Amino acid sequence: MEMGLKGKVAVITGSSRGIGRAAARLLAEEGARVVLCARREEELTAAAELIRRETGADVLAVLADVTRPEDCRNVISRAVEAFGRLDILVNNAGTSAAAPFETVSAEKWQADLDLKLFAAIHCSQAAIPHMRQAGGGAIVNITTSGAKTPPASSLPTTVSRAAGLALTKAMSQDLAKDNIRVNTVCIGQIRSEQIERRWKQAAPELSWEEFSALPQHQIPLGRIGETEEAARVIVFLASEAASYVTGTAVNVDGGKGPAL
Length: 260
Fold this sequence. Notes:
Layout lengths: L8 E5 L4 H12 L3 E6 L2 H15 L3 E5 L5 H15 L4 E4 L6 E2 L6 H29 L2 E8 L10 E2 H19 L4 E8 L5 H10 L5 H5 L14 H12 L10 E4 L8
Parallel strand pairs: 1-2, 1-4, 2-3, 4-6, 6-8, 8-9
Antiparallel strand pairs: 5-7
Helix pairs in contact: 1-2, 1-8, 3-4, 4-5
């Protein structure tokens, strides 16, 4: 399938590790020029060097804390200065934060919203004028399948991510006239450093494949997903192969989420 990504310029937030790094690598493999940003300089530099070495693509690394609006604007401006345009934005930055409602402080609520909602807002606001100038673009917001049906003790993450779902739909309606598509990928259990720590603490005697397939995870497909599996869906939605897809949410959770 022709993805139509050659020569495109993509910014991926939170891309020094995990799903963000995997998405950046796949975009680079498809011929896109990629801009990585994250808060940890050493990890960010290493990720950029790895992608550059493995794909031969043009890769720019920008140190940024996307909870700061000025950093969001700087990432976008650096991308345009380096490559002359902007076509794709993947709002991926985020961490897991899940606790019972009464235990979540005002400071934790604000920090979570700043990272998962307002970072996407500020990055998108900075990116949209450049996408219009390029004749269109694609924004992919990363949320979670739990945002659709929040379980107990899942705050503040599920609320921040549910706001991201609403943001995606509203933006898609406003920006369709500019040929800017906006979609979201709802992530379930995907292999991460956090999940690997849980594996090594709870069942170090098991291999990853054995731990991933434990029935207690309650995943219909029978295993925890890999980062590349989530990244492939992100790249599809960012590509010309999804040129008639906007305002939608795609679950990447092995069938676990109860909502479509």
